[in-house]
Amino acid sequence: MIVLLLPALVASISGVQDLPPVTYPKLAPTAANAEGFVPKGWRIESRDSGDLDGDGLPDLALALKQQDPANIVANKGLCGDRIDTNPRILVVALAQRGGGYRLAVQNHSLIPRYDHACAEDWFASEGVTGGGMEVVRGTVRIRLGRFMSAGGWGMGATTYTFRWQQGALRLIGYDYTNVQRNTGEMDTQSINYLTRRMKTSTGSISDDAQKTRWSTIPARPLLTIDQVGNGMDFDPDSLLGKR
Description:
Layout: H1 7-12, E1 30-31, E2 42-50, E3 59-66, E4 72-74, E5 82-84, E6 88-95, E7 101-107, E8 132-136, E9 139-146, E10 154-165, E11 168-180, E12 185-192, E13 197-204, E14 207-216, H2 225-228
Antiparallel strand pairs: 1-7, 2-3, 3-6, 4-5, 6-7, 8-9, 9-10, 10-11, 11-12, 12-13, 13-14
C-alpha cells in the first residue's frame, strides 16, 4: 500500500524514471564450471547446486549481476545519493555426464532492476526482509523481499519455487507474505501448483488468531520462469487484489 503524500514528496521518492539501457549478453552454451557462464563485466552474486533434473548429478543455479559503473545513477530524491541499477541474470546449468555443464535457463525478467533508493534491494540477502536464491530438494527457490524506508508501509516477501520439468524451469509454488507496519494487518498466500491447493490467511501482528481459507485453483499448464515475468509485479489471477 502506498501512502498518500504531497505531489512534490511523491516525485522526490519515485525512484529512477529512465533506467540506463542494457544489452543482455548471450551466455556460453556450455562451460566447464560456473565461472565459464559469467560474461565480461558481470560477477556471480549468488550460487547454489543440487540435482535439478533427476540424473544424480549436481546442477548449478546462479544469479549474475552486471558491474557497469554507468548503471549506478544519481538519486535526486530521498534515501541516498546513488542507485545501483545494474541488472541480474538467473542461470540454471545442468551437469553433463562427461563433465562440465549445459546452459538450460537464462532469465533476466524475474528479478527486475533495482530502481528505488527508498526500497531495499529486493534480491539482496541482507536487510529487513531479505531476498536470495537456493536449491532445495531438487527445486530452485527465488525470494524477493519488500521493504521501503519511505513511500510505503507494506513489508514482506514473495518466494517462487521452480522445478525443472518438460525441458523448462516451471513454477510449482508461490508464497506471498505482507505486513502493514502502520496497522499491523498481515496476510499470506501460498499456492501449490502441483496439488492446485491455495491457502490464504489474514490476521494481525497484535493478535495470534488468524483466519485461514483453503481453496482449489483451476487446472492449467505450469508457467515457465519466463512466463512469470517480473517477480515484483506477478499477481496470480489478480488474487492479491482480492485479499
